[in-house]
Amino acid sequence: ADPLEVKPFMERLGVTTVELLGCEGVVSEVEEKLNILPEPELERWVDLNYDLGRRSELHAASAHLLHVGRKPANPL
Predict the structure, then answer these.
(1) Do 67 and 7 meet the contact criterion of CB atoms below 8 Å apart?
(2) Residue 69, SS3?
(3) Is the Cβ–Cβ distance between 63 and 28 less than 8 Å?
(4) Which of 10, 14, 37, 74 is the most exposed place for a label (fewest CB within 10 A)?
(5) Residue 8 contacts residue 39 (beta carbons within 8 Å)
(6) Three-class SS of residue 70?
(7) What is d(CA 65, CA 76) in angstroms, rounded to the nearest whole number?
(8) What's the rounded Cα separation, in Å, for the pair 18 and 52?
(9) Which of 42, 3, 2, 40 is nearest to 21 (CA)?
């Protein structure tokens, strides 16, 4: 799906968007190398990936998107 279509699609279903995140982003090609890093360095990569994953202009570069939403109290 086009990342620009996810939020409008979900909201047409009545789901309020809380967050849309790119899940892998900059770490998708280097996971094996990251998994052997000492904990402090790994945490810095995790934080960077999370920060970049929140940027909508980078969503198309992510392998997966995560839509976090809130369903309506009274569904259709």
Answers:
(1) yes
(2) strand
(3) yes
(4) 74
(5) no
(6) strand
(7) 25
(8) 17
(9) 3
Give the pLDDT mean for 46-75. 90
Secondary structure (DSSP) of 9-68 = HHHHTTPEEEEEEESSGGGTT-HHHHTTS-HHHHHHHHHHHHHHHT-GGGGGGSS-EEEE
pLDDT digits (tens, 9 = 90+) for 12-29: 999 999 999 998 877 777
Place of tokens 């790119």: 22
Q: What is the dihedral of CA 51, 54, 61, 39, to 10 degrees?
A: 30
pLDDT at 6: 96
pTM comes to 0.76
Total number of residues shown for the chain: 76
- 75 secondary structure, DSSP code: -
